[in-house]
Each structure stands twice: as structure tokens, then as C-alpha cells.
Specification:
This protein is of the alpha/beta class. Helices cover about 25% and strands about 25% of the residues. Strands 33-32-35-30-29-26-1-31-34 form a 9-stranded mixed β-sheet. α6 packs parallel to α9, α10 runs parallel beside α12 and α12 runs parallel beside α13.
Length: about 650
């Protein structure tokens, strides 16, 4: 029986607290039966540890990150001139203990063509960027990614595109990455300079395809699109610009007035004879062969499999007038679905994990209606996914109805309010998988964070919120919650920024790659997540509450968030996040029956203020401070500084 089923989807007191915050209910952070007599002296919080109650293994992949975009040399992360990782980034990634890096990325990678990104650079194709539709380069391909992964010591995780690929193409990718020499794809990899298999275990199919801006060929109706993602299908496209295989911008659909122009529809294959092609507002006619067409005939040929439209040369078929846009209606498909991808990929390498991504979110919670696990179970395919990847972002406009920060403090509080709601999304998805999926299926987080989507212009009162101490507190809270929920791996948004300076990323842009407080906390927690231990029961009794303005996610949040683990050497580590923007909190750490050596290793990350951050001028404004303390008996009295992440490590007795 899986750990998820043995231990449930989370501790009872945590789920109560998360649900209360998500519903906008003020509370103590304790269950009703815990509220009586739970505090320490003077009503101070008590962090109660039961080291005998072990649950999930601590994942070394908890502090992963969504990779920088692959194009433009991964925003400076790859040194294409010397064919190596940029020297300034390797040591910082290692120091920050990043366990996993996702490739090729998120939305921008939804139309990635892996076969165009391998082999000699001069033979590689351009790519279509998945959000803007513009052509981008293929210099940082799968082999460069794996060279980077091995240099920094991280684990690979691949987002395989769904919208423009086939199960056979992605199964080929699995073979290229994992098959031995002596096979077609293993031999090709060897000819490209990499004889040994890469052994990429973790794969997900598509990125946020449930989002209205990432449906590509699928239906705008959510339920129908979910069925198409699961099982494939055909969908009518209307008045869609045509383009080229590497350019989907509107400008790529405009006639240049030259003979023998060729265009393609965006999402082939197309059902034969289903297309309507217009030049400007005029519908043109398909013919089997342009050679028999007259000079004035408004005709074209069409190849349904590739979606290629070919116009005449002025002698055999008229030339589309220069400057006119060409559009097409057509039935895109038939396309395969996730079940087909899963089956083909697992046939190539049964040891890999293939995750589905259909986990839509609405207004601070997992979307209602029929779920993807329920749909697959209904059709007898409950065993056709190894897990699900979710992106439980705190989206300020969607979840808190905030179009701006009223003040700087709100920029801090909104992130803390969103934390519990994001964790509740993960626990709800876990519950769905437990009910409808196979025993060992699990939840992973392949993107997360607290953000304004649609630009940083909405954060004028606190423009540094996404790379200041506030966001490090948010992420530390997420890791604590996710560890308690048994999340297998977590990748946050994003590795590095597009430009020098800082944005909503783990590091500043090239060439300095400034380490944000988020990266500093990862370094602090590296031993915790790589210690090879198990999560043990921890609970904050009489938790302090931080009051906020009224929001859809409540008007207060728990000041302290905690998790604990016993590592392979028998040491107990207690992670405590004090999200209060201005109050130190005196607390008692109750160790229960855990026997320890008496000396406590202490590390603390805290800026001078909650809005403190690192930059090129002050790269060490936020750092780790280490010290030692003495603990006697079964408890430790400790004051957790405001806006801080504290890790207490209790080594076992020497005789252990």
C-alpha cells in the first residue's frame, strides 16, 4: 500500500487550517479539540513534534525549478560559443541545492519540436514560441540541457509538448534520452556525442492546456477539451491565420506577392476536404494539381497530413495579392490523447513516470466539475497515468481579486494568504487521485509561486515582491506544506530572468545571476531535503494569527508554518517559517520522546525587513546566519524572528 494511502493526504489539523483560510474563515490554526490547553506559558505557540509518527519520504526534488526558456541560450544560462553552461551560474545552482530542473519550460514550450533541436547546430530548425508564436532558436537542445543538468548535479524533468506532437514522436524522445546503444535512437544519441543513456525518469505531457490561452487545437469548452486531452479527437478551427512550421505570427500569414508561396495551417493534420482557405475575404478553391490551372484561377493545393497550402505562380494559378492575409477554417485532427502518449512512452521505457497535467484552478481553489482522474476511471483507464502535475499558483487577480497592491504590506500579506489555498489545491487533487487512480499514483508540482499574471505594472507599491524576502517565506511555506502532503517533486517559477536585473525568478539575469532570498533559503534547506529521511508529525498549537484587510481568502493567516523530518542519520530537523512581517514569536518546541545530543544546530534566513532583497549592488543583503544552542530535556524555548525561515537540527545522542 502506498504511503499516501497509509498516512492520508495530510495531517488533520493542517487540512482544517488550510480549508478555513481558503474559505475566508478566521481561526486559531488548530482543530476545535486542539484549541483547549494547547498553548505554552502566556499563550505562546507550541510546536509539537512526534518523531515516532513517520509518514512520507523527504523528497530531494522538493526545491526544483522550472527551467529558463530554451531559446536565446536559455536567457544566458548556456554559453553557446564554448558549448558549456555559463560559468557564473553553475556554482550558484549547486550552492542553492536545486534538486530538479524542468525542460524545456512552460507556456513558451508548448510547441517545442525536440527533433529540430538535436545534432549539429547548423542542421537544427527554428522553433515556434508557444505564447507569441514567433520563431526562436534551437541552440539549447536536449543534449545541451543534459550537459547542464550533469554539470550542476540536478535531476531532469521533461515537459513533452502535446499540442503539436504525436505519441510516436514523444516515444522517440524517450528512446533518444534513455535507450542503449544498439538501438535506432541510442545510436543517434551516440553519434551526437552522448553514448550513455541519460536515464530521464520524469515526464509530463503538455503545460497548462486547461488554460483558455493554451488550448491550441482543442475546444474552448473545458469539459470537451479535457476529453480531447485524455483521448484525442478532432476540432474545428475557424478564421485561423496560416503561417509556417516555425512562425505563427499574424505577419507570417501575409502574402508577399511572389509566385509559388507555401503556408501551413497551425495544427495539422487536417481532415481531408474540411478546409476553407481565404485570401483576404475571398474563398479560394482546392485543386489536385496546379499544372492544369489557368493564370486567373484562384486555386491552391492542400496536403492534409502536413497542413501545407501551395499557391500558383501566375501562369498556373493566380498569385495571392501582396499584403492580403490568408486564413483557414479546417478540422484539426485526428489527434491522439494522453492515454495514447502514456502507452507509447511506457512501451519504450517502463521505468519512467508519465504525468498528466489537466488540473484546472479557479478563484483560489481546484476547479469543480468532473476531474481528470474521474474521467479516466470512468473509461477504464485509471492505471494510465503515474501521477498528475499541478500549478497551484497564487494568482492575485484570480484568487484575491486584486488588480494592484493597496500598499507594500498588502503585497506581503496577499502571498501569505495564498499559501494555504495553494496547498489546499494540492491536497484536493491528491484526494481525487486516491479515489479514482491507481495505488501508486502521486501529485507533483511543476510550477508554483505567487504572482501577478499579465505584467509587473500592477505591483507598484511593492515591485520587488517576487524576489524579496516575502516570496522566500511563501516558498518555504509551500515546501513545508507539500512535504507534509507527500508531494513527490516541486518546481517553482522560474530559474533566471530574460534580462539583467531581477524579476520573478530564482536568480537575476545574466551575467551576474544574483541569488535571491528564495535561492538563499534553498541553500539553507538543502540538507533537510537531501537528508534521505522521513517526514514526522509536527503541529503548531495556539498559532499566532496575522490580521489583514478583508480578502476573498480571509482576513488573517497563521504566523507559523512548520514541518519536521528525521534524516537517515537519526537527526531531527524542524523547519519553522515565521511569516509575520513585524513580530518575533516566542515559542516552545516540544520534542516529545525524541532523544537528542543536547546541542542544536541553528540556521536562520531573514532580511532586515520583509521586503529586503539581494541585487548587484548588495548581493548579500539576505544571507544565512548559523549558530548553536543547547536543548535540555524534551523541549526548546526559542524566539523565531519576524519574516524568517529557521531550521533547527537536533543530532541524536552519540551512542545512537
Amino acid at each position: 500500500m502506498s504511503e499516501t494511502r497509509r498516512h492520508g493526504i495530510g495531517r488533520r489539523h493542517f487540512l482544517y487550517g488550510a480549508a478555513a483560510v481558503a474559505a475566508g474563515v478566521m481561526g486559531t490554526g488548530c482543530t476545535p479539540e486542539d484549541a483547549q490547553g494547547a498553548s505554552g506559558s502566556g499563550g505562546e505557540p507550541v510546536i509539537a513534534i512526534d518523531a515516532q509518527r513517520r509518514s512520507f519520504k523527504v523528497s530531494p526534488y522538493m526545491t526544483g525549478v522550472n527551467g529558463a526558456k530554451w531559446y536565446d541560450d536559455a536567457y544566458g544560462m548556456w554559453d553557446s560559443e564554448h558549448n558549456r553552461p555559463a560559468p557564473g551560474i553553475v556554482g550558484k545552482i549547486k550552492k542553492s541545492g536545486i534538486g530538479m530542473i524542468r525542460y524545456p519550460g512552460g507556456t513558451s514550450s508548448n510547441l517545442f519540436n525536440w527533433k529540430g533541436a538535436i545534432g549539429p547546430q547548423e542542421d537544427r530548425t527554428r522553433q515556434v514560441e508557444g505564447q507569441k508564436g514567433e520563431p526562436v532558436d534551437s541552440r539549447f537542445g536536449p543534449d545541451e540541457y543534459m550537459a547542464f543538468i550533469r554539470e550542476v548535479g540536478a535531476t531532469p524533468e521533461i515537459m513533452a509538448p502535446f499540442a503539436n506532437s504525436t505519441p510516436e514522436e514523444i516515444a522517440d524522445w524517450v528512446a533518444y534520452m534513455n535507450a542503449p546503444q544498439g538501438t535506432k535512437w541510442g545510436d543517434l544519441r551516440a553519434r551526437n556525442g552522448h553514448p550513455e543513456p541519460y536515464g530521464v525518469r520524469y515526464w509530463e505531457i503538455g503545460n497548462e492546456l486547461h488554460g483558455s490561452n493554451q488550448r491550441y487545437w482543442m475546444s474552448t469548452d473545458g469539459d470537451k477539451a479535457m476529453r480531447q486531452y485524455a483521448f484525442g479527437g478532432t476540432q474545428r478551427q475557424k478564421r485561423q491565420h496560416v503561417g509556417t512550421p516555425t512562425d505563427h505570427r499574424p505577419s507570417a500569414s501575409v502574402s508577399n506577392g511572389q509566385p509559388n508561396q507555401t503556408f501551413t495551417v497551425w495544427y495539422p493534420p487536417a481532415v481531408p476536404k474540411s478546409q476553407i482557405v481565404r485570401v483576404g475575404d475571398t474563398t479560394w478553391r482546392e485543386v489536385a494539381d496546379l499544372s492544369s490551372a489557368g493564370a486567373d484561377d484562384r486555386v491552391y493545393t492542400f496536403e492534409p497530413r502536413s497542413g501545407t497550402i501551395h499557391f500558383g505562380d501566375g501562369r498556373h494559378g493566380t498569385i495571392p495579392q501582396k499584403g492580403l492575409k490568408i486564413t483557414a477554417d479546417y478540422d484539426s485532427g485526428p489527434h491522439a490523447g494522453f492515454v495514447d502518449y502514456y502507452t507509447k512512452m511506457k512501451a519504450v521505457d517502463p521505468s519512467i513516470d508519465v504525468l498528466a497535467v489537466w488540473a484546472p484552478i479557479e478563484a483560489g481553489k481546484l476547479a469543480g466539475g468532473k476531474s481528470f482522474p474521474e474521467l479516466l476511471a470512468e473509461h477504464g483507464h485509471a492505471d494510465k497515468y503515474d501521477g498528475m502535475a499541478i500549478h497551484p499558483y497564487t494568482n492575485f487577480p484570480r484568487d484575491l481579486k486584486a488588480t494592484s497592491f493597496p500598499d507594500k504590506r498588502a503585497g506581503h500579506d496577499y502571498q501569505m494568504l495564498g499559501d494555504a489555498a495553494a496547498a489546499k489545491m494540492v491536497s484536493d487533487l491528491t484526494a481525487q487521485i486516491r479515489e479514482h487512480g491507481k495505488d501508486k499514483a502521486y501529485v507533483a508540482v511543476s510550477e508554483c509561486g505567487a504572482l501577478f499574471f499579465g505584467g509587473e505594472r500592477d505591483s507598484d507599491a511593492y515591485p520587488q515582491y517576487s524576489f524579496a524576502m516575502s516570496h522566500a517565506l511563501y516558498m518555504a511555506s509551500q515546501w513545508a506544506r507539500f512535504a507534509d502532503l507527500g508531494v513527490r517533486w516541486t518546481a517553482s517559477n522560474d530559474l533566471i530572468g530574460e534580462k539583467p536585473g531581477l524579476s520573478r525568478t530564482l536568480f537575476g539575469g545574466a551575467p551576474s545571476f544574483v541569488r535571491t532570498p528564495d535561492a538563499i533559503v534553498r541553500e539553507q534547506l538543502s540538507d533537510f531535503f537531501h537528508g534521505g529521511g522521513h517526514v514526522v508529525d509536527s503541529e503548531v498549537k495556539s498559532n499566532a494569527e496575522v490580521s489583514t484587510r478583508e480578502t476573498p481568502l480571509g482576513s488573517s493567516y497563521e504566523a507559523l508554518v512548520t514541518t519536521a523530518a528525521v534524516d537517515k542519520d537519526g537527526a531531527l530537523s524542524v523547519l519553522v517559517v515565521n511569516r509575520s512581517p513585524d513580530k518575533d514569536l516566542k515559542s516552545r518546541v516540544d520534542l516529545g520522546s525524541f532523544r537528542h545530543a543536547g546541542t542544536v544546530d541553528v540556521s536562520v534566513v531573514a532580511g532586515r525587513t520583509y521586503d529586503d532583497f539581494n541585487n548587484d549592488e548588495h548581493p548579500d543583503a539576505v544571507t544565512i546566519k548559523k549558530s548553536h544552542a543547547t536543548a535540555k530535556g524534551d523541549s526548546l524555548n526559542w524566539t523565531f524572528a519576524a519574516h524568517s525561515v529557521t531550521l533547527l537540527r537536533f543530532p541524536p545522542p552519540m551512542s545512537h
